[in-house]
Design goal:
Chain A is built from 8 helices and 21 strands. Chain A is an alpha/beta fold and 435 residues long. Chain B is α/β, with parallel strands linked by helices. The chains are: A alpha/beta (435), B alpha/beta (258).
């Protein structure tokens, strides 16, 4: 029988490797070195979540982290090809990252967009970077945030300039390439300046031997006043094991729309944290997840209402098939002075197999007294009356199921504003629903 | 019913139950092309169960009896195959299906039915033309068909939508399950006119109703009175008028001991 490495041993190894990486880079930017050192100390306290870690209680990391996994330490020599992909619009801006390194050679249509490797941005846009890097993704909250911050090698810096109206969706594609087990740590910093309006599509898809990689992704998004950012994340890589932390700060009058679509992967854990930092800000969060076989898709969301007159609305829907497990934990946190908050949350699940599992847990923590908050969750089968109605019109059972599932998922997909990506997702799901 | 034309639907000694309760207790009926049969009866006599059993709803268990539809064993067919063979049930309580537009729903239904019958797919232009024509039959608002199936429809709109689907699917045998329930007199007239206009010598209709008023518009060839799971009296339209006048009590009294 295969022996499994313990979370303690992994923690020890990651600390050693992270220290070595930090020391090798010590001649670099002092601000960065300071941040990394703090992050490493913080990671040392938390470590890789073990069996007793409440926030990761459904994940046994020894199943997803190979015994001989190493933190990725150099740019990959192999570049996977993504010439054609159903979720990539060839005519829209495309930014490609391989193992977390920004690859300008694979990127295209980027005229008018400020996008550069995070390493270059640290040198060239130091003020912009250091006034935001690590600010939203606070240390000491999540071990994966700490680990990423302690030793990310590169990443992407995307600046949506003041007043920018992006007509095409900006696509960021994350690929992995590995010859041996690797922990990769992609990091994206999005600065949505005042009054900008843009769609960003973040696609994680299969690269080379993605079953060998574990992705520890960290996305920080800063929405300045009146910024409108629609960020859609599509996760579609059957070999993938990943933890993806997304932290967004939403300022006065700004509006974040986040659509998370988890389609394929062995382990997908999303921590989505939205902080409404100033009054009049708004967040709309939508999620669709569809694990099958033995996959585990685990969505944790936190909406932090810090100021009065903010709105949040959250709808996550899942279809759970095979022996798969879906987890949804949604927390709404309304701070004491966040009066006149409107916060709504709903989670719905359809089980397609008797062996599928759903764990859903809404959590409201409300310290203000003049708020409107609600939450609800449901888990069930496809509606038998609806199925019968469709069949009574001559529609076969598989087709009837597909129609109902399509409608069910459509409620989420309709929020993907980019026609190309929404239609591509619908076509992909139509095929899955009918098989 | 000594007609020479071939029997379309033949129900013989049908027994069915839901959970442990027997509801149909030896039901018999023959329906020929071109005929309209009204099935009346007090609440709980088994009228809607009959409709559900014929359409293939799984909540009901047929314990004995046979149903032949154009010579085929109907009870052995899946609900979708019954529809594809030409049976249409207008539901008493049409369900709402959010997210599925009526247009998409009917397009799918028609293409599946045509495929079953070995017909080529319908041209989109032809489909749209048919939609337009059939909407006129039930005086349905154009915008209604862009909406999700029955979602937020009024009672009258739901029933109109049922008859609209019937018009689009062009069934051989339509079963209207209390289509008149919950309709005001104007909606009733529209629905009934729709049904009447769809009548042809080669199709047939079973109208299940509690009240005679629908039969002022859809004139039946035969009226059957159902009680305690079977037909206890058959006649012509005059029987419906008699029921209207005398109520169902005399039927109950006549058969209470049976």
């Amino acid at each position: 029988m295969e022996t499994k490495i313990s979370s303690n041993a992994l923690t020890e190894r990651f600390i050693n490797e992270a220290e070595a990486l930090r020391d090798a880079a010590l001649e670099g930017n002092p601000l960065l070195n300071e941040l990394r050192t703090k992050a490493l100390e913080s990671f040392r306290k938390q470590g890789v979540p073990g069996k007793k870690a409440e926030e990761y209680r459904y994940i046994d990391f020894s199943r997803y982290l190979h015994d001989d996994v190493r933190i990725e330490a150099s740019k990959p020599e192999l570049c996977p090809s993504i010439e054609t992909h159903p979720f990539i619009d060839a005519s829209a801006p495309l930014l490609v990252m391989v193992n977390g390194y920004f690859e300008p050679s694979l990127s295209r249509n980027c005229e008018g967009i400020t996008a550069l490797s995070l390493a270059d941005a640290i040198a060239q846009h130091s003020a912009d970077v250091f006034s935001h890097l690590g600010l939203a993704a606070e240390l000491g909250q999540d071990p994966f945030v700490d680990l990423n911050t302690s030793c990310f090698r590169d990443g992407l810096f995307l600046k949506l300039s003041k007043g920018l109206k992006a007509e095409r969706p900006i696509q960021i594609v994350q690929l992995s390439a590995a010859l041996s087990p690797l922990l990769i740590q992609p990091r994206i910093l999005i600065l949505a300046e005042q009054g900008c309006d843009a769609d960003v599509v973040y696609l994680t898809t299969a690269g080379l031997n993605s079953e060998l990689t574990f992705s520890n992704i960290l996305i920080e998004a800063h929405l300045e006043a009146q910024a409108q950012l629609r960020l859609s994340s599509i996760q579609q890589d059957a070999g993938m094991s990943s933890v993806c932390n997304t932290v967004a700060h939403v300022a006065k009058g700004a509006n974040l729309q986040h659509v998370n679509v988890s389609l394929e992967g062995k382990l997908i854990r999303n921590n989505l944290q939205t902080v409404l930092t100033e009054s009049g800000s708004e967040a709309n969060l939508y999620g669709y997840y569809h694990p099958t076989e033995k996959s585990l898709f685990d969505n944790h969301t936190l909406v932090d209402h810090r100021q009065p007159h903010c709105q949040s609305n959250e709808l996550y829907k899942g279809v759970v098939d095979g022996k798969a497990t879906a987890v949804f934990k949604g927390k709404i946190y309304v701070r004491k002075n966040a009066q006149k908050t409107n916060a709504f949350q709903s989670n719905k699940n359809i089980l397609l197999s008797a062996e599928a599992t759903v764990n859903t847990k809404p959590q409201l923590e409300i310290y203000a007294d003049d708020v409107k908050c609600s939450h609800g969750s449901s888990t069930g089968l496809l509606d038998s009356d609806q199925l019968f109605y469709l069949r009574a019109r001559g529609i076969s059972l598989p087709k009837a199921k597909a129609l109902l599932l399509h409608a069910y998922a459509g409620e989420i997909l309709s929020h993907v504003r980019s026609d190309f990506h929404r239609e591509a997702l619908q076509a992909y799901l139509a095929q899955r629903f009918e098989s | 019913m000594g007609s020479e034309s071939k029997v379309m639907l033949s129900i013989r000694d049908l027994h069915a139950r839901v959970e442990e309760k027997e509801i149909l207790k030896g039901f018999n009926l023959d329906v020929r092309p071109g005929e309209v049969h009204a099935i009346m009866g007090p609440n709980g006599s088994g009228k809607s169960t009959l409709a559900s059993v014929l359409a293939g709803r799984e909540d009901y268990e047929v314990t004995s009896g046979t149903v032949l539809f154009e010579g085929k064993e109907l009870l052995e067919l899946e609900p979708e195959d019954r529809a594809r063979e030409g049976i249409f049930l207008a539901f008493q309580y049409p369900v709402e299906i959010p997210g599925v537009s009526i247009t998409n729903f009917l397009k799918t239904a028609i293409s599946e039915q045509r495929e079953y019958r070995g017909l080529p797919p319908m041209e989109p232009k032809e489909f749209l033309q048919m939609m337009k024509e059939k909407k006129a039959v039930v005086e349905i608002d154009t915008n209604l068909t862009n909406r999700a199936v029955n979602e937020g429809f009024s009672g009258g709109e739901k029933k109109r939508n049922e008859i609209f689907q019937m018009a689009m699917l062009n069934p051989k045998l339509s079963i209207l399950d209390e289509t008149d329930s919950g309709l005001d007199i104007d909606a009733l007239r529209v629905v009934a006119n729709g049904v009447t206009r769809l009548k042809r010598p080669d199709n047939a209709c079973i109208v299940i109703t509690h009240y005679q008023r629908l039969l002022d518009y859809i004139v039946p060839d035969f009226v059957h009175v159902m009680f305690d799971g079977r037909i206890v009296k058959s006649g012509t339209r005059e029987l419906a008028l008699e029921l209207e006048e005398k109520g169902y009590d005399w039927i109950r009294k006549e058969h209470a001991t049976a």
